[in-house]
Amino acid sequence: MLKSLYIQNYVLIDNLNIRFTDSFTVITGETGAGKSIILGALGLVLGQRFDSKGIKGGEDKCVIEAVFDISAYRLQSFFEGKGLEYDTETCILRRELFASGKSRAFVNDSPASLNDVKELGNLLIDIHSQHQNLLLADTKFQLKVVDVMAQNEFSLTQYKKEYTFYQSLKRQLKELLGKVAQSRQDEDYIRYQLEQLSEAKLTEGEQDELEKELATLSHAEEIKSALYKIAGLLNGEEQGSVQLLKEALSASEVLEKYYPGAKEITERLRTAYIDLNDLASETGSRGEDIEFSPERLQWVNERLDLFYSLEQKHRVSTVEELITLREAYGKQLATIDSFDEQINELTARTEASYRELKKLASQLRAKRKKASESIAKELMNKLSFLGMPNTRFRIDFIEKPEPESDGTDDVRFMFSANKSGGALERVAQTASGGEISRLMLCIKAMIAGFTALPAIIFDEVDMGVSGDIADKMGVIMQELGNKMQVIAITHLPQIASKGKEHYYVYKQDAGEHTVTQIKKLTNEERITEVARMLSGATLTDASVANARELLNLNITIYEGK
Length: 561
Prior knowledge:
It is a single chain. By secondary structure, this protein is of the alpha/beta class. Helix content is about 55%, strand content about 20%. It contains 17 helices and 15 strands. It has a 6-stranded antiparallel beta sheet, with helices on one face. It has a 6-stranded mixed beta sheet with strand order 8-12-13-3-14-15. It has a 3-stranded antiparallel beta sheet with strand order 9-10-11. The longest helix is centred in the middle third of the chain and has 67 residues, at about 320-385.
C-alpha cells in the first residue's frame, strides 16, 4: 500500500507530505485546485516521462518521494533480479528532477533505471484514470481480464515457457536454412579448393627444405669446386694444413723430453690435427656427393612454383597456412554434408514443440471459456446493481492463425445495455461514456478478488454518472476498500461521503505566488465539504443536513466493520 507521498517544487506545490491509510480514502477539491497535479507527481515517481516545465517556477530541482508498505507483495525475486536493495517491509521510490531536463531515480536510496522503476511501479499500485477506460477497446486487456479471473497464472507461465522455446527453435531453424542455402552456393567452390590443396600433398617444412635444395642445385659447380679446394688446402701432400700440423705434432712430441711445457702444446696440436684431418676427409666426401641434376632442379622449381602459386592465390605466405586452410575446407564440407541430418533433427524438435504449444493453448482456451461464463454472469449482476438491469454481456473467442505469446485466442467483449433483443456489439462501439465507467469499475472490482494488487487509485472514473448510480459506485469502492487500499479522486458527494479518510485539495496565496495545499478533514469539515459538493458554493441547511446524514451512515458502516 502507499503509505506516504512527499512532493517538493512541483508545478504549484511548494511542499506536501500526504499520509495514507490502508482502506478507502477520498480526495476532493474544486476544479483546478491541484488534484491532477498530485496524481501527476505520483506518476513521475512511478517512472512516467518528465517535462522540465513541471518544476515550480524559479526552482532548479523538484523532488518526489513515495513510500510503500510491501510486506504482502512478495517482490524479493523482482528486486534481486534487478539488482535492487530489498527491504521486506518498505520500498521507497524517489525521483529528482532538474530544470536542465535531467532526472534521477532511486529505489531504497540506490540509483535505478527509469524502466526498472516503471516496472516496479506497476507492481505496487494501479492508477485508473479516465483514459484507462479506453482499455476496454483493447483485446489484449480483455484477454488479461479473462486470464486473471480464470486464475491462469500457472498455465500461462507454462505456455510462455514453451512459446519462448518454440520461437528459439524457429529462429535456429531459420538461421540453419539460411546457412545451408549460402553453403550450397559455396559448396562447389569449397570442394574445388579442397581438391586442389589435397592434390598438392602438402607437408609441413617441405617448402623450407626445397628452397635450401634449390639453392644447392643452382650452385652445384661452385659448391663442388669450393669443397675440393678446401680439401686440397687441408690435406695437400706438401703444403696441406693437415701435413704441416702432423710435422708440428712430431716436433712437439720430441720437445716433451726436454721441456715440460711442451706437453700442453702437444695435446692442443694433436686435437687440431685430428679435427682438421676429419674435416679434410669429410669435405672431400661432400665434394664427391655434389652432383648437378637438371631433372631434379626442374622438379624442385616446379614444386616450389606450385607452393608460391597456391600461397598467392589464398593470400598466405607459408605451406603451414595452406595446410590449415585445407583442413578448414575439409571441415566446411563435412558440415555441409551433415546439414540434412541437422535440418531433420531441428525440424522434428520444432514440430514437437509446436504440438506441445498447441496443446497448452487448447488447455488455456478451455479454462478461459469456462471462466467467461461466470465472468459474464457476475459482471451483469454488478452492472444491474449500478442501474443497468438490461445489460447483456458475452465473451466471444476467435482463434488466431498462429500461436502468440498469450496463446491462440483473441477475445471480444460483446455488450448491449438495451432490453430489446438486438445483436450484441463490441463494447467500444456501443457503450456510452457513463456505461464504460461503470463497466471498468465493475471489472476492476472483480479483478481485485483474484489478484494480490494491494492498492488502486480511481481518478474521476465516476464521470458521466450521478445520483443513485454514483452512490452505488461508492458502495463498490467502499467494498473494495475492505480488501485493499483504495484512493478515489472524485467530484461526487455520494462517493466522497463513503471514504474512511477524506483529503481536501485547495489553492492558497503565499506572498506573490499561489500554491496547492492538501489537508485531512475532520468529521465537521467533511460535513461542510460534502454539503458544498451537494449544493455548490452557497451552503444550505438542506445540503448540510443531507451531508450529515450521508456521513453519519458512512461512519456507522466503518464503526460496525
